[in-house]
Model the fold of this input.
Amino acid sequence: MTQSAKPVPPIWCPGCGDFGVLAAVKKAASNLKIPVHELVLVGGIGCSGSIHNFIEINGLHALHGRLLAQAVGVKLANPSLTVVAAGGDGDGYAIGMGHFMHAFKKNASILYIVMNNETYGLTKGQASPTSQIGFEGNVEPPFHAILSALSIPAPNFVARTFSGDPKGMTAILEEALRFNREGRGFAFVEDLSPCVTYNDTYKLWREKVLDVSKVPGYDPTDNKTMFRLCLETIEQGRIPIGVMHRPKEVAQDGLERKLIGDGPGPVRTDIRLESNLAAYQKLLSGLS
Ligand SMILES: Cc1ncc(C[n+]2csc(CCOP(=O)(O)OP(=O)(O)O)c2C)c(N)n1
Ligand code: SF4
Ligand SMILES: [Mg+2]
Done:
């Protein structure tokens, strides 16, 4: 068993949306009774990425935009762990974009939470890939991560939450973690997490969020339906939240199972020479 670090008080600005994510992660993990030594949180670089310092957990601070590679690595090394990657919109959708798209294809059973505040909070409020046109001189339309997620035909869990609705967020994180722990694959949850210092969107988002489960035709088992429904919701000036993809199949489809099967993974495999001598000699004889 590893020893988890003791948490320190959050250094976030009072009112930052990331507090809601911290509380919801703690509550969801405790509701599911996940032992601390089985839980790993890989943080990105940014205000959001420091979340692992504020919770009693095995934490790892990844390189900027590379938290998914590191989180998938942790899962493949020891599939019995519950692995959460958490970072910002800059981290995930700018420098980390390549890894982000591949994560849906790879489908390792980890949870990725993006705290989207539509800005680079830590570096003092520049425009990010999700910023609205006009924010800090931005002239580009915002990137919609949920639409990209839904465009990939993979059995991932996809959802969006709002820090102004902590109850809804906790329920969704709980479902996502359950999905991971059943080995069913990748879970992506984008949380709308206002940066009260550089981009205070609380009031606007509270008025505009729309729970997609209330929209006629809602069917989270069907990507095509949900892509259209979310796109139309955005075109109407609303912000879709809720579960966007909940695959029908209950197959244990995670990458770790495809690569490792039911085995314990490299971390728990006996790699001593004396235990593997016969296999080693067979390998050598094949080379001569
Ligand atoms: C390789 C590299 N490039 C740039 C930076 C500077 N940097 C630190 S955090 C950050 C962006 C943070 O924005 P986001 O991921 O949205 O997190 P937030 O602070 O908004 O939670 C950048 C560009 C860095 N640390 N490393
Ligand atoms: S600068 Fe913004 S994102 Fe960073 S802690 Fe403060 S409110 Fe949160
Ligand atoms: Mg950000």
